[in-house]
Amino acid sequence: MAPGDDGPVVARTPSGEPFDVLAVADQLTERYHRLYLVDLDGIERDQPQLDYLQEIARGAEVWIDAGVRTSDQAIDIVVAGAFRTVLTSGRLESEKELGRTWKLSPEIAFEIELVDGALRAAPPEWTGFAPARLAGVARGMGLQDVIVSPRGADVDWTLVAELAKGGSTWVDGTFDPSDVARLAAAGASGGIFHVNEELRGVPARSGESGRDARGGEALDDDT
Length: 223
Known about the structure:
Elements: H1 21-31, E1 34-38, H2 40-45, H3 50-57, E2 61-65, H4 71-79, E3 84-88, H5 95-104, E4 108-115, E5 118-119, H6 131-141, E6 146-151, H7 157-164, E7 169-172, H8 177-186, E8 190-194, E9 217-221
Parallel strand pairs: 1-2, 2-3, 3-4, 4-6, 6-7, 7-8
Antiparallel strand pairs: 1-9, 4-5, 8-9
């Protein structure tokens, strides 16, 4: 998938055909050792594409956001081969599910979703929390990797710098060269950027597999 004016849209070749998602993953892993994969079937329909996730995870360090709501769902993604299974503030059923997942596997990252600068939190116990306070809750459990994901507003680099003091902090968004310098200045571990410019030369999907291929994002450190 690629960003669109009203949300994600199917990424297509110049001739209008959908890209082959496995070919996209192969091309990206030639340039980047770490990928961030968003599974919209998992997020929107609670049906993660585990076969695809497992195949892609064989060839790269893959961080996967598949719409996890419970610890059981999180472990399914861990078993599929995710280097980091991403749990987000806007979809978890409760704070207990975050703690349960951490006890089952340390290979998780926690995403703090921000909408117009305010925390988006599904668990009622997080209502009204400041982002830094929620990051403290996650890190108090032992988690280190925190992702800051702003929606509808620019990145709050002061917040990023504050969170980075407590551990590994990543910033979701689309970056240009000037933003890379800002990542480093804030002490962030890296940024997540869309793959649009990386799709040139990738072949279209061949045949019909019965599965809806999804694109991903590259996750690159600030070096």
